[in-house]
Write a structure and sequence with these properties.
By secondary structure, the chain is mainly beta. The protein has one domain. It has one helix and six strands; from the N terminus they run ββαββββ. Strand 5 and strand 6 form a beta hairpin. It is globular, with a radius of gyration of 16 Å. The termini are close together. The model has no long low-confidence stretch (mean pLDDT 87).
């Protein structure tokens, strides 16, 4: 798949997952995009994962986004000045749940197709 531009036009909070005990909810603050290329990349990755016996999740429920931070308050959907950049690679990242540590396991470049 060739590199592509992604545009984020909205900011909002995703629904907070319930937390154990008396710990307060943490709302993921995200930028949203509607670019078809992001959905295509997700579909290609899901197909490849399933081909190798891995679960990829429901493609139809995928919401293209970028998580910025986790906060204690929910932000309603709001339009923003567009933020754009070119996606030229993707990375496999292991998230250590509860530790806010992220380990890049590998990276793959997107390439121009002939």
């Amino acid at each position: 798949m060739p590199p592509f531009e992604v545009t984020f036009r909205f900011i909002t909070s995703f629904e907070s997952a319930p937390r154990a005990g008396s710990r307060p909810d943490r709302w993921p603050l995200v930028l949203l995009c509607e670019d078809n290329e992001v959905r295509e990349l997700y579909q290609r990755l899901a197909t490849a994962m399933e081909k190798h016996g891995l679960e990829a999740g429901a493609v139809e429920h995928f919401i293209p986004h970028m998580t910025l931070i986790y906060g204690s308050k929910r932000m309603p959907l709001k339009a923003i000045k567009p933020i754009r950049f070119v996606v030229n690679e993707f990375a496999l990242i292991h998230s250590e749940l509860g530790f806010t540590r992220y380990n890049v396991l590998d990276r793959w470049p997107l390439r121009l197709t002939a």
